TrEMBL record:
Residues 269-300 form the DUF6576 domain. One of its GO terms (cellular component) is membrane. Gene3D superfamilies: Rhomboid-like (1.20.1540.10). It comes from Siphonobacter aquaeclarae. InterPro entries: DUF6576 (IPR046483), Peptidase_S54_rhomboid_dom (IPR022764), Rhomboid-like_sf (IPR035952), Rhomboid_protease_S54 (IPR050925). GO terms for biological process: proteolysis. Keywords: Hydrolase, Membrane, Protease, Transmembrane, Transmembrane helix. This is Membrane associated serine protease, rhomboid family. It is a multi-pass membrane protein. The chain crosses the membrane at residues 19-40, 72-96, 108-130, 142-159, 166-188.
Length: 301
């Protein structure tokens, strides 16, 4: 048991491990709610579980949002059945790996959080504005799907021709996988899970815009990173370094997708060597630096 706890502590202490941390948080919340649900059910106090869930689930009712604004974020860590969390976490793992590999852990976390927030806000807004949905203002919305769709579309926008090997079908480019699920969600808007599908689509749209803006030099995730840094410093036991003021000339740096500093494009010899390595050992044999160089070369033209 102590070994398991040590592994969990290590997962949360490691830097650039945002993907695993997001998955673990979702799993822990699911298991915690499952224990509460079973416990309250056995004791005949099911209403207590409903009360707990009401503190975490998102409802478009304005009064609920006014008094429980945190539910705009907590809902995307809540799942109520095993298949729901299983598929969401599988998709988050598959597509999140690509985003983390090329953009880093911090931007993956920002994309997830903002995708969930935008999905929740859009869900709440449409349920209050569209007459068809107004009698469902107390309909709870839970699940990471909006955040996961943001990550999926982010990965598909970042690397549209990257190939996944889909069971039975074979190799499929991720832009087609993302397009398929977006179309399915759009087609199901008139159905019983309209709120969930609205959340999917708005999260997907944000994921697309996030990468497009990032390529133009605007990082929409900076506010999230600033908040996370604040809480990290707040709970950190390490002494704060003394502030030093340095003056430097104002120089403009060129944006890169995977680094905050300007770097030159890799030369043709480097790219040829990377392509030779892919032909011999496959794409997965590349190091993170080689993948980043290959991606940057693809942005050159």
């Amino acid at each position: 048991m102590s070994g398991f706890i040590d592994d969990i502590k290590e997962a949360f202490s490691r830097r650039d491990n945002g993907l695993i941390q997001l998955i673990l948080i979702n799993v822990f919340v699911f298991l915690g709610l499952l224990v509460l649900q079973v416990s309250f059910s056995l004791s005949g106090k099911e209403s207590y579980y409903t009360l707990v869930l009401d503190q975490l689930a998102l409802k478009p009712n304005p009064a609920h949002l006014l008094y429980k604004p945190w539910t705009l974020l907590t809902y995307c860590f809540v799942h109520q059945n095993i298949l729901h969390i299983l598929f969401n976490m599988l998709f988050l793992f598959w597509f999140g790996q690509l985003v983390q590999e090329y953009l880093g852990s911090r931007r993956l976390v920002s994309l997830y959080m903002l995708g969930g927030l935008v999905g929740g806000l859009t869900f709440a807004a449409l349920y209050n504005l569209v007459p068809l949905y107004r009698h469902w203002l107390d309909m709870p919305n839970v699940g990471a799907s909006g955040a996961v769709y943001a990550v999926m579309l982010g990965a598909a926008t970042l690397l549209p021709n990257y190939t996944f090997h889909v069971l039975i079908i074979g190799p499929v480019r991720i832009k087609y996988i993302a397009a398929f699920f977006v179309v399915v969600s759009f087609a199901q808007i008139p159905g019983s899970n309209a709120g969930g599908n609205i959340t999917h689509l708005s999260g997907a749209l944000f994921g697309y815009l996030y990468i497009r803006m990032l390529r133009r030099g605007t990082d929409l995730g900076q506010p999230v990173e600033a908040v996370l840094d604040f809480f990290k410093r707040l709970f950190s036991r390490e002494p704060r370094p003394r502030m030093k003021v340095k003056y430097r000339s104002q120089t403009r740096t060129t944006y890169t997708a995977y680094s905050t500093t300007a770097e030159e494009f890799p030369d043709d010899d480097e790219i040829d060597a990377i392509l030779d390595k892919i032909s011999k050992s496959g794409y997965e044999s590349l190091t993170r630096e080689e993948k980043q160089k290959l991606y940057k070369a693809s942005q050159k033209n």
